[in-house]
Task: structure prediction
Amino acid sequence: MNNYMYSSSAISTIGNSTEANLLQLLIPIEKNKALIEPAYKEFINPMLLRRMGKATKMSVVCALKCLKKVDVTNLNAIIVGTGLGAIADTEKFLTIASQQGEKILPPTSFIQSGHNTIAGQIALLLKNDSYNMTHVQQGLSFEYALKDAVLSVQEGAQLALVGAVDEYTPLLQNFAERLKLEESVKNQLLEGAAFFTLGGSPKKAIAKIKAVSISSFKSVRDTLIKELSKFDLRLEDLSLGFVGYNLAKATIKELPFKTINYTNYTGRFFSSSAVGLHLATHFLQHAETDPQYLAVINIASKNKLGLIIVERV
Amino acid sequence: MKVFVTGLGVVSALGVGVNANFKALQKSITGIGLNTLLKGLTEPTYVGELDLSNQDMKRMLGFSKNDGIPRTALLGMLAAKEALGNTILNGERSGFISGTTVGGMDLTEDYFKEAFDNEDHKKVLSIKTHDLGTVTNFIANFCGNPNYVNTISTACSSSANSILLGARMIRAGLLDKVLVGGADALSRFTIHGFRSLMIYDNQPCKPFDAARNGLNLGEGAGYILLENDTSISQTKNNIYAELSGWNNANDAFHQTGTSPNGDGALKAMKGALNAASLNPTDIDYINAHGTATKNNDSSELNALAILFKKQQIAFSSTKSYTGHTLGASGGIEAVFSILSLKNKCVFPILNWLNLMEQKFKQPVTTYQVNVKINNVMSNSFGFGGNSTSLIFSKV
Result:
């Protein structure tokens, strides 16, 4: 069974640009941390928007933009990955609760703090009663969500919406400093969201998801060879790799193809590989050369690796 | 490909282990009482609390007292250990999927209350175990080294969904065995949260009763081991039940409330029946979601009435024993559902006096044994409209 992608949308430093030369326009995160954001109020009623946390707001709008490009009559699955969920609302409710104690507290930040508020809110706005799932597994949250979407399509879902999000807060930066995380992690901590639609029909597809895998690794090269072989592919079949780092410091220099470190441009957050996939898909659509396969390699932690292979259609 | 249940593990306010829990259910003894271990609440609160401290559990599990492990992970490890028995989860064909909502919140909220302005570097380390994935990793590492390690967080249906996802992975041939379920500890965060929504009962909760006035939170963990034939031929584990049907649907009505007729609940129950190729008349007992909030119980009862019509359907909510254990509830109640199937018994609801405003469908109020039970349905519904129904069948 093939899994095709029909649309892709992101809210991040790289935005949702349709520029063919997007890769040349990328600015290192050290020089620019500003997200390219849409006017949220054009998509969401202002009353509702005020209650939404950043992660929910980004996801909902990103999802709506992604769905604009497709026929949503048979949207059979809404799947979200997030490492920390609505962490700002969690911080807010924790702070109110520790300051005000037992008094009856305003419930908004508690309601918004649930990890599945994001997927639930998308379903609510679309009045969609289908499969609704939220995966929360640190730096692999997006890969697990994507695997679920691929499985849903195999099971017969005509259209699956899948995406990932994480939000930045000053407190997370504070913790990163206090916990003495790697310099590169501290300097690149950021936020973003990306959503995609998948299905089994090749009609109007922009790319094909050839593989999604999660593995333990010692050597990136050896693990890639092993994972690729499961899909009858070799390292030589890949023409470009989009490599992202999560909490890990690892650097890879052992690959026979060109690599682009996307987290240098998107910043680091648990679900950054979703933006990595958005970038890879964009490149595949606009590349002048003719790459057949691209890899999104997510060094999720010092021993876990996520791999997504996108194929040209 | 069939999905079999070959291991059960549970920890709740009723105690540690399947036996302790089963005995309490048989004798209709509740685990709900006023809080003792959970500190920092200014008024006494009815909760389903396990009477073991974190240090007690660390000792039982072989950790040192200084190990920074959240309570959710400790509860989870106790239940996972029982469910696995001698089975070890290793390699590419094994998985662990845990449902949770609070994760490491207990250590986080202590940090926020006592240590936020403290520059002591050691104290800030407690924040490292806050995220849900870290808690799942603790339990996964304790179970072996499975390749697929994932966390589902969909509020009160989290662990029902981890069971559903594990079943789908086995059916699709992606895994041979997977430990599924979930864990959640009590926290001030969630107690304050449900109080802020005005749905926390200051008295012991009364699911499906006319005078129900909200939920009591509880804590615990429930895991079941799912295996396919290939795996069972190697592990030689006993089969407790078949997980024959599952479905997840969305109510798409309100962020925290449920639709009057439980549209999501109804769709999930119908979907699970459909997946199991069963009719409503094939269901012998329903372990209902039954949180004792006005909204949930009314919607769920209406959905039951629509699906089961005039049929005398036996149902109860074991949350009157354990409290609402949030992300753990689907796992704990899956274990209870399988106990019902295996022992041909139905656990009665506690604190029930009067029919709800609808004036139909009375829950089971006395312990019944030696009844025909071939199929048990377990419901879990959560915020965000998330609705999941599972069906366990006799093998």
Q: What stands out?
A: Chain A has two domains: 3-199, 210-311.
